[in-house]
Amino acid sequence: MAPIGGSLRSGNGASVAVCIGSRNINHLDELVFQCLRFLKDNGFRPFIVPAMGSHGGAAPEGQKAVLAGFNITENTMQAPIAAEMGTQPVGYLTPDLPLYISNAALAADYIVPINRIKPHTKFSGAIESGICKMLTIGLGKADGAGAFHRAAVTRGFGIIEGAAEKLLSRLNILFGVGVLEDGYARLSSIDVLIPEEIIFREKELLEKARQMMPGIPFDSIDILIIDQIGKDISGIGMDSNVTGRHRDISGDFYTTPHVKRIFVRDLSPASGGNANGIGLADVTTRRVADAVDWQKTFVNALTAVSPEKAARPMYFETDRECLAACAQTTGIGETVDLRIVRIKHTASLSHLQVSRPLEYEIQSHPALAQIKEWAPFAFDASDNLEDFIPYG
Fold first, then answer.
1. DSSP code of 49?
2. Every domain of the chain and the residues it spans
């Protein structure tokens, strides 16, 4: 990482709050470490501030635990982590919408937000997930995230841009780091942005991210099996841009792929028990029901004004029972006719397991190839599906 336009000659000991969110970005720990090292080499005193709204149960130790799941700790990063949840408003977007910012970040001489830029699961617009959203919502901790989501119910998330403009004029942003991932969830590009260009460059980068966004290459699906959901994978556990399903007070939608039943098998290890988004599933396992930290899940869902996402679907002891419940409620008479797709999670789509009724679509799609012979789903001795380990 090189100095921006030669302007960073010496930090003269100035402190810098490096802001990190709750998503598992490819090589995030290395990216953060190198950013911290760059700042130290230029005479700054960097420290880390979790910028993840209410995630981690809206508690300092919970937010540190989220970062630890990405190998970001004070030891590995060789930098302090200031995770306290206190905030204060630095201005107002409208008289009834304060713009909260973390006290720890405000105490620093400069702020450096690092975030992935990608389509959001809840809304579409010129600006979605990225640096601007981190500044307006993530860095506002639970106070800011709650206030902003409540306002967006009636005003829409287009208010992110106006809020970002105000914050960029009030905060000492040293630079922002915008990260793009390709369709295989691999690091594609890293853009270092000066404050004046963050908004318009983020719009450009979002379009690039949109073009690389992976998807399920079938429209009509009877059963979608998702092995894992979690906050490290998507804000709502499973990306609605991939599943085609979203329920929210700001609007429900059912788009391609059109899925009749979603079966979620497990929570990701890095989710920390936060099962926000489980309410978008139709069926799940007792493993999931027992693994959920409902307090964390409820805090997240309430802050996002989305109690629907924390609703618990019906659950069964085994995967075989879950699949039977899904099959029984698809309207398809014969199980051999079911169009089934299985994925590891919504950020891992390079390899899919599918049922034979999708054979013709595989053969006629120029970007798809069958790599194994047809065989029945394999169950273990406990009647659970054997692990799905993507190739490559």
1. E
2. 15-212, 220-364
The Cα–Cα gap between 297 and 307 comes to 9
For residue 347 the two structure tokens come to 């950020």
What the block records as the tokens of 326 is: 């899904």
Using the predicted structure, report yes or no on whether residue 31 has a pLDDT greater than 80: yes
User: Can you name the residues that pair with 189 across neighbouring β-strands?
Assistant: 180
Question: Is cis: bond before 119, omega within 30 of 0?
Answer: no
Q: How many whole angstroms separate alpha carbon 67 and alpha carbon 70?
A: 5
> In sequence order, which residues have a C-beta less than 8 Å from that of residue 196 and are 6 or more positions away?
none
Query: Are 168 and 139 within 8 A, CB to CB?
Result: no
**Cα–Cα dist 144/138, whole Å:** 7
45-50 and 15-20 strand pairing: parallel
Q: Name the 3-class secondary structure at 364.
A: helix
Residue 235 pLDDT level (bands cut at 50, 70, 90)? confident
Which structure tokens are listed for 363?
A: 């053969």
| CATH classification for the domain delimited by 15-212, as one of 3.40.50.11440, 1.25.40.10, 3.10.310.10, 2.60.40.60 | 3.40.50.11440
- pTM reported for the whole predicted model: 0.86
pLDDT, residue 390, reads: 65
pLDDT(1) > 70: no
pLDDT digits 0-9 by tens, 142-151: 999 999 999 9
Which neighbouring-strand residues pair with 285? Answer: 316
Query: How many CA atoms are closer than 13 Å to the CA of 122, on its beta-carbon side?
Result: 23
